[in-house]
């Protein structure tokens, strides 16, 4: 999502499966079946990326060093920032961590089970058979659908403009009951205690770090998980129009309105966002109920300033910026309610809304610009949650970009060409659940309220939503 229109998607079989799949090729991209949920499995690997260690204004150059990582969800267990591009209206956003001792287990549907409570969490229930996508290798095709290259783990790079897309389309029909689902694991006791404290933190529009830094340690950096029976999930961050708790809205307007900086070398840094989402501000403000126009962006960090290193080190970041922690940990959940109405007011990224996550190191150095000034191009991690790939499209795609299954470049990862329906006139509620216990990420539509707590049963029902699955290769 961040830079390139050429995405390295992955698929189980060779190109012959692409040709036989029931998919449509539209504006350089393939779309297969509408879905309510996508489940990524086998998330996490051992690898490295190049981390920024300095941004030199005198030479306009950045220096980097190699950082290694390993384990379930890595590198996506590191702190993430959450990004939004218009046209989009955000109505709710929240972050949850498991309460102490929580363990959520998949409930297998049986003939005697009343499935009505599960089905109510699926806005658009599909037929009994759903498309299941397994992702283990990479296939590139050109604009005519012809095979360019396939790989099972080595890096492939193309500069030829004729290579316009890469496709994931190995779809097989399977009973809905066999679609991938998983367990949502618990976070550590330390994460739970901080999460509980956060629910009583100040809910003023300012969302300053001082009010919630100690209460949001889990939201910023928790990375451990354990399993036992328990009570559910605790909300540690929340936004509704005009009000925030442990959320900091930012954009890339540094140097324009009292926060952040601008330079001829690196342009505008991140800054506090004003309540309209598009202007800069001198201090943190809560977003009003606004519809972000095409190609305009803002992002959300936690309310914990990077000067608070008791919950982890933010690493290097550009000087004189409002630097805040993101949301870390192997097990965590993000919830959203949003609309994406049509808007053709921009000459770039026209009517192409998106919601995605980045390794929080990226915007704290340079989100757009010289690739050596962020860790993005070397695979430190991005998750595209709901992204429109061509102007005016009604189909939202999800994809993971990191080095998994590749050699550490951002062209690894995987995804599916099944899609969510774009919510243009009525809002969509969604949950994104990172489960460190079984190395999965669930991106799914849900219903119900996003209260200060969510019961284990509610989240279990969400996890049982049938949909597409994408198994990442090691």
TrEMBL record:
User: Does the record carry Hydrolase as a key word?
Assistant: yes
- Under which main EC class is this enzyme filed? hydrolase
Q: Where is the signal peptide?
A: 1-21
Catalysed reaction equations from the record: Hydrolysis of (1->3)-beta-D-glucosidic linkages in (1->3)-beta-D-glucans
Report domain Cell wall protein YJL171C/Tos1 N-terminal positions: 36-98
* Keyword Hydrolase listed: yes
Annotated GO molecular function terms are: glucan endo-1,3-beta-D-glucosidase activity
Family annotation (InterPro entries): YJL171C/Tos1_C (IPR018805), YJL171C/Tos1_N (IPR018807)
Sequence segments annotated as region (Disordered): 212-233
Q: Locate the Cell wall protein YJL171C/Tos1 C-terminal domain: which residues? A: 232-462
* EC number(s) per entry: 3.2.1.39
Q: Which family does it belong to?
A: Belongs to the PGA52 family.
Protein name (record): glucan endo-1,3-beta-D-glucosidase
Q: Which organism is it from?
A: Lachancea fermentati (Zygosaccharomyces fermentati)
């Amino acid at each position: 999502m961040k830079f390139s229109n050429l995405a390295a998607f992955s698929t189980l079989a060779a190109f012959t499966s692409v040709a036989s799949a029931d998919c449509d090729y539209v504006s350089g991209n393939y779309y297969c079946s509408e879905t309510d949920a996508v489940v990524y499995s086998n998330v996490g690997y051992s690898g490295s990326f190049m981390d920024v260690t300095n941004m030199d204004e005198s030479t306009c150059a950045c220096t980097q060093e190699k950082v290694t990582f390993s384990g379930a969800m890595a590198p996506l267990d590191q702190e993430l920032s959450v990004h939004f591009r218009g046209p989009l209206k955000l109505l709710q956003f929240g972050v949850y961590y498991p309460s102490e001792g929580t363990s959520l287990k998949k409930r297998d549907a049986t003939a005697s089970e009343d499935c009505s409570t599960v089905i109510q969490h699926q806005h658009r229930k599909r037929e009994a058979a759903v498309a299941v996508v397994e992702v283990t290798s990479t296939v590139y095709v050109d604009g005519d659908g012809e095979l360019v290259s396939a790989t099972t783990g080595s890096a492939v790079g193309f500069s030829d403009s004729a290579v316009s897309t890469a496709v994931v389309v190995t779809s097989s029909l399977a009973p809905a009951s066999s679609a991938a689902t998983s367990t949502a694991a618990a976070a550590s006791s330390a994460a739970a205690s901080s999460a509980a404290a956060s629910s009583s933190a100040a809910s003023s529009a300012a969302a300053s770090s001082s009010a919630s830094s100690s209460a949001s340690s889990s939201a910023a950096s928790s990375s451990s998980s354990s399993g036992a029976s328990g009570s559910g999930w605790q909300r540690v961050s929340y936004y509704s129009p005009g009000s925030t708790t442990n959320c900091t809205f930012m954009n890339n307007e540094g140097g324009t309105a009292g926060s952040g900086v601008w330079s001829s070398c690196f342009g505008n840094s991140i800054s506090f966002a004003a309540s309209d989402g598009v202007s800069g501000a001198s201090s943190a403000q809560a977003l009003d109920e606004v519809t972000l126009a095409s190609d305009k962006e803002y992002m959300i960090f936690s309310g914990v300033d990077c000067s608070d290193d008791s919950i982890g080190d933010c690493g290097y970041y550009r000087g004189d910026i409002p630097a805040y922690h993101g949301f870390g940990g192997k097990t965590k959940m993000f919830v959203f309610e949003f609309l994406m109405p049509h808007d053709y007011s921009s000459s770039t990224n026209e009517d192409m809304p998106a919601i995605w996550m980045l390794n929080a190191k990226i915007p704290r150095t340079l989100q757009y610009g010289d690739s050596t000034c962020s860790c993005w191009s070397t695979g430190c991690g991005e998750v595209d949650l709901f992204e429109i790939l061509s102007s005016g499209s009604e189909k939202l795609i999800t994809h993971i970009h990191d080095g998994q299954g590749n050699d550490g470049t951002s062209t690894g990862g995987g995804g599916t060409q099944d899609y969510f329906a774009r919510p243009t006139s009525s809002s969509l509620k969604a949950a994104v659940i990172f489960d460190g216990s079984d190395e999965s990420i669930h991106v799914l539509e849900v219903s119900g309220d996003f209260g200060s707590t969510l019961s284990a049963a509610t989240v279990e029902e969400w996890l049982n939503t049938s949909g597409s699955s994408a198994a990442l290769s090691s």
